[in-house]
Each structure stands twice: as structure tokens, then as C-alpha cells.
Amino acid sequence: MKRPSEPVLTAAQMLAAEQALIDAGSSVDELMQIAGIGAAEWVWRIAAGRSVTVLCGPGNNGGDGYVIAEVLRARGLPVNVVAPMAPKTPAAMNARRAYKGTAATSGKGIDGAVLVDCLFGSGLSRPLSAELLLLLRDLASRHRYRIAIDLPSGIASDSGETLNDNLPENTLTLALGAWKYAHWTMPACGTMGERKLVPIGITAPTESAALVGRPVLAAPAPDAHKYTRGLCAVVGGEMPGAAFLSCKAAMHAGAGYVKLLSERMERAVPADLVVDRKILDVALGDKRIGAVLVGPGLGRSDEASAALRTTLAWCRTAVLDADALTILTPDMLREDGIYIATPHEGELEQLCRSFAVIAKSKREKAQALAKASGMVIVAKGPDTIIAAPDGRTALARPASSWLSTAGTGDVLAGIAVSRLATGAEPFEAACQAVWLHSEAARLSGTAFTATELAGKVADAYAACL
Predict the structure, then answer these.
(1) CB atoms inside a 10 Å sphere around CB 194
(2) Biggest alpha carbon distance in the chain?
(3) Rounded to an integer, what distance in angstroms lies between the CA atom of residue 452 and that of residue 438?
(4) By Cβ atoms counted within 10 A, which residue in 186, 265, 319, 392 is the most buried?
């Protein structure tokens, strides 16, 4: 397993990575200086000569705040430090002694342009007290720009849970050392504003999660033809529009040949879409099919269930989406099957029930379900998590909120089956599909339809060449 280029760490993994640096000859104080000076550069840019208030807690996150405050003070910026509690860790105490300014114990009468939240970082596991929450809210209301250091206070690092209600929204969040799950997981990530990483030199473990990056794709080989590029099939159902959307996306995502399998297709179809009207088991007998998509517009009738069972019996490599996820039972999956499932939140819950998975957070559900089912799980939504049966996990950067319209999930599934048909490994195919889907949404602008989104997949693909 290769080391991820943009790792996402749990709080425990982050502590271990820092300890490895200390064991190699660094110290907590040195790491605090690196983190604080790096963060201060971002605060300096945003402050642009205006006053800054730094809210410091008792731990090492507060110590980072004292380092930031001293860097800004030494550069001549007006700085106020608010420290409702004295430093409690040795490194935080040293940072406080090195800060040559004064510190107030309350926020009374203090305002400014930029508030820097260094109250608590990734180690927080319980809600802020009523007094600290009131202080944070009060200061936030009196500062135009708000910057959270490592994580906003009141956030659970590993789950992305907000531990308090009505936490302030931030202009910028500066992740120290590595990304944490909360930086890319709802509801926490909705409070963070823009996110930037401040490196401190850690080496992430190979088993850590990663951010989904821009895939490296290729144009067809000089001697390519439609079958060498990959043939994928989409199983039609009761609502043909969904299958059409998937087919359109698949045709733009790399596969050389896309077939719609539908015995009862009555409406007109695009000239460049092949429709196979043979009975399903005969149509699926085409050995050239590299991957099949089943679910968009399938329906939930007994006939739909039979179609799903037939598809999975005939095809070893499949993407399951929409209705297929609701009617799927564990016995339908082949032991040698290669599967990607793309559930939204409700479908994820249904799959967890079907596979007897009990987990709390979305990440834990996706990871446990992948292991229990053998499927790569794309738990989609405003935060998207991709989990593989072997434990690999990836998180997507936020995509356009205009994706919250009917049919966009069918487009994602179509991209995924196309990538699988080209021969991409399932976890990689899923990550590629999520990135291409997000980029197509960005290129589509505002208030787009699913059809318009599918039409931008080719342009998204071009960005990866």
C-alpha cells in the first residue's frame, strides 16, 4: 500500500506521527514553533495590517496561539490575547513566557478585524462549557474574519460531529501537520470556510486515509478500438430517464462502448447509444462486457429484484446504485464479485441493515459496510467518503452544492461504471468517478440539470490528461 499524498489522520494517528518526530530528535516546543509560525503567515495575510485577537486555551492549541501572537506582535501588528485559562502543558507554558505582550482573561471590550481561535484543537472530545462557548460566540460576533487553528473549537476531530450548537462559522481553518477527518466531514466542515494545510514535517502512516486527488488519465492508445477501451452496460428499468443519464455520463468517461440493456424500450434514444433489447440474461451473456451498472430507474418491484439477481449472477464486475441498493440482499453478491456501491445517506442506512453493520459515524459505516460486503462503498452527499474492503479510505473535497438536484447520482454511477470498464481498479475507479463528477459540476456553473452535468464529463476528463 503506497503512502497517500494528502493524508487524512485520526487524532490518534496524528499524535503518533508527532511522537515519531520527537523520537527522531525534535521536541514539542520545536513543533509548536513550526506550526505557529506557519499559521501566523496566513493570519498576517488576512489581517493586512488590521488588529488581531488570539483566543488561547490551556493546551498545546493555546500554545500555538501564543506563538502566532508573538510573531504578529514582533511584526508590529496590533494583537490582543484572550486566555480564560492559564497554560497547563509545558510547551504551552513556554510559549506563553515567550510571548512579550499581555493577556486578558475575558473578552470584555475586545474587538478587532481577525479572531484566531486557538481554544481547543483536535484533542477535544467533549462540548465546550457554557462559559467558553459564550466567550467564543461573543468574540466571533465582534470580528469580521475568523480563523480556526487546526480545528474550530467545539468539533470532534475523528467524526466531524459538532459538540456544541450554534458554533461560529469561520473564514479560514488552518490544519496543522495533516488533514483530520473533521476537515472534510459534515456537519463540522460546513463551519470551516476555506481550508489550508500548515506542514510541520510529519510522515503519515501508509494505512491512513487520503483526500481524493485529480486522477491521471490518458487518451486512447494509437491502436485503440471501442472494445479495447472497454464495453460497459447499463441495465434499464421502469424509469428509463435515469438509465439514459447514466449512459450519457458513461460515454464521456473513457469507455469506448456503452450499451443500454432494455427489453421494453419504447421511447426514442440518442443515435449514439446502442440499445440491446434481448432478454436480460441473453444480453448479459456478451463476454465483452467489462462492467455493468444496475439500479438507476430500476424500480423496486419483484421484476426489478429478479433483474438485479440476474445481473449479479451473470456479471462479476458491477456498479450498484439507487433502487438496486434498496432491494439488494447479501446472497445476491458473488464471492468473486468486484463491486462499487454508491449510496446516499438513506441507502447507506438500508445497506447497513441488510449486512448487519452497526456503526456510528458516516465514515465508520462506510468502512464497516465495505468490509462486511466486499464492495467499494461511495457514501455520497455533501461530504463523500470512499471505503474499500481492504481498509483504504478516501475523502472528497466539497463539490458544488448545485449537485443537490435529481439525476446527478445517476451521472456519478455512469462515470463509475465507465471507469471500471476501462480496467481501473475498483477503489481507484470510484475515486476517479467522484473527482470527475465534482469537476463536471464545477464546470457546469449554477442551477444546472443532470443532463447538463453529464455533458460536462468530457471536459472534466480533459482536465486529467
Answers:
(1) 11
(2) 81
(3) 13
(4) 319
Residues 63 and 89: beta-carbon distance below 8 Å: yes
123 — alpha (psi -120 to 50), left (phi > 0) or beta? alpha
Tell whether 216 is covered by a domain. no
Cα 208 to Cα 205: distance, rounded to the nearest angstrom: 6
Cα–Cα dist 338/219, whole Å: 25
What are the beta bridge partners of residue 118?
A: 56
| CATH number, domain with residue 115 | 3.40.50.10260
Question: Of 232, 209, 329, which Cα lies nearest the Cα of 286?
Answer: 232
pLDDT level of residue 113 (50, 70, 90 thresholds): very high
Q: pLDDT, tens digit, for every residue of 326-370?
A: 999 999 999 999 999 999 999 999 999 999 999 999 999 999 999
- What residue type is assigned to position 252 of the chain? H
Residue 344: alpha-carbon gap to chain centroid = 13
Give the tens place of pLDDT for each residue, 41-96: 999 999 999 999 999 999 999 999 999 999 999 999 999 999 999 999 999 999 99
- Cα–Cα distance, 127 to 153 (Å, whole number): 9
Reference 163, options 190, 126, 137, 193; nearest CA is 126
Per-residue pLDDT tens digits for 402-418: 999 999 999 999 999 99
Summarize pLDDT for 235-251 with one digit per residue, the tens.
999 888 999 999 999 99
- Between the two ends of the chain, the Cα-to-Cα distance in Å is 25
Pairing of the two strands 376-379 and 385-387: antiparallel
Classify residue 273: in a domain, yes or no. Answer: yes
Q: Which domain holds residue 309?
A: 231-462
Q: Which of 321, 368, 317, 369 is nearest to 342 (CA)?
A: 321
Query: How far apart are the C-alpha atoms of 312 and 409, rounded to whole Å?
Result: 21
User: What's the confidence (pLDDT) of residue 124?
Assistant: 79
Beta bridge partners of 115: 53, 146
Is residue 173 helix, strand or coil?
Answer: strand
DSSP bridge pairs for 7: 210
